[in-house]
Amino acid sequence: MEVTDADVDAEVKELAAQYGMEEGAVRAAVSVEMLKNDISMKKALALITDSAVEA
Fold first, then answer.
1. How far apart are CA 27 and CA 43, in angstroms?
2. Of the candidates 33, 39, 37, which has an alpha carbon nearest to the alpha carbon of residue 13?
3. Range of the domain at 16
Protein backbone atom coordinates (compact mmCIF):
# COMPACT_ATOMS: atom_id res chain seq x y z
CA MET A 1 0.00 0.00 0.00
CA GLU A 2 1.33 3.40 -0.96
CA VAL A 3 1.35 6.02 1.79
CA THR A 4 1.71 9.65 0.73
CA ASP A 5 2.91 12.69 2.64
CA ALA A 6 -0.70 13.88 2.60
CA ASP A 7 -1.74 10.62 4.30
CA VAL A 8 0.87 11.20 7.01
CA ASP A 9 -0.23 14.82 7.49
CA ALA A 10 -3.87 13.73 7.83
CA GLU A 11 -2.94 11.03 10.35
CA VAL A 12 -0.92 13.54 12.40
CA LYS A 13 -3.89 15.94 12.43
CA GLU A 14 -6.24 13.14 13.46
CA LEU A 15 -3.97 11.99 16.29
CA ALA A 16 -3.43 15.56 17.47
CA ALA A 17 -7.19 16.14 17.64
CA GLN A 18 -7.81 12.77 19.27
CA TYR A 19 -5.27 13.32 22.04
CA GLY A 20 -5.58 17.11 22.39
CA MET A 21 -1.97 17.64 21.34
CA GLU A 22 -0.20 20.02 18.99
CA GLU A 23 0.75 18.50 15.64
CA GLY A 24 4.42 19.18 16.36
CA ALA A 25 4.18 17.19 19.59
CA VAL A 26 2.63 14.26 17.73
CA ARG A 27 5.41 14.36 15.13
CA ALA A 28 8.02 14.44 17.92
CA ALA A 29 6.43 11.49 19.72
CA VAL A 30 5.77 9.21 16.74
CA SER A 31 8.17 8.40 13.92
CA VAL A 32 7.14 8.86 10.29
CA GLU A 33 7.86 5.18 9.65
CA MET A 34 5.50 4.17 12.46
CA LEU A 35 2.81 6.44 11.04
CA LYS A 36 3.32 5.05 7.54
CA ASN A 37 3.06 1.50 8.85
CA ASP A 38 -0.19 2.27 10.69
CA ILE A 39 -1.67 4.04 7.66
CA SER A 40 -0.70 1.14 5.40
CA MET A 41 -2.42 -1.31 7.73
CA LYS A 42 -5.56 0.86 7.82
CA LYS A 43 -5.61 1.03 4.01
CA ALA A 44 -5.17 -2.73 3.71
CA LEU A 45 -7.97 -3.38 6.19
CA ALA A 46 -10.25 -0.93 4.36
CA LEU A 47 -9.49 -2.65 1.05
CA ILE A 48 -10.33 -6.05 2.49
CA THR A 49 -13.54 -4.96 4.19
CA ASP A 50 -14.68 -2.88 1.21
CA SER A 51 -14.23 -5.83 -1.15
CA ALA A 52 -15.75 -8.42 1.17
CA VAL A 53 -18.93 -10.07 -0.06
CA GLU A 54 -21.59 -11.15 2.37
CA ALA A 55 -22.45 -14.83 1.97
1. 21
2. 39
3. 5-51
pLDDT of residue 55: 63
Q: What is the DSSP string of 7-36?
A: HHHHHHHHHHHHHT--HHHHHHHS-HHHHH
Q: Where does residue 52 rank: exposed (0-12), middle (13-18), buried (19+ CB within 10 A)?
A: exposed
pTM for this model (two decimals): 0.84
Flag whether pLDDT at 34 surpasses 90: yes
pLDDT at 31 over 90: yes
Please, what sign has the CA dihedral across residues 47, 1, 24, 10? negative
Domains in the chain: how many in total? 1
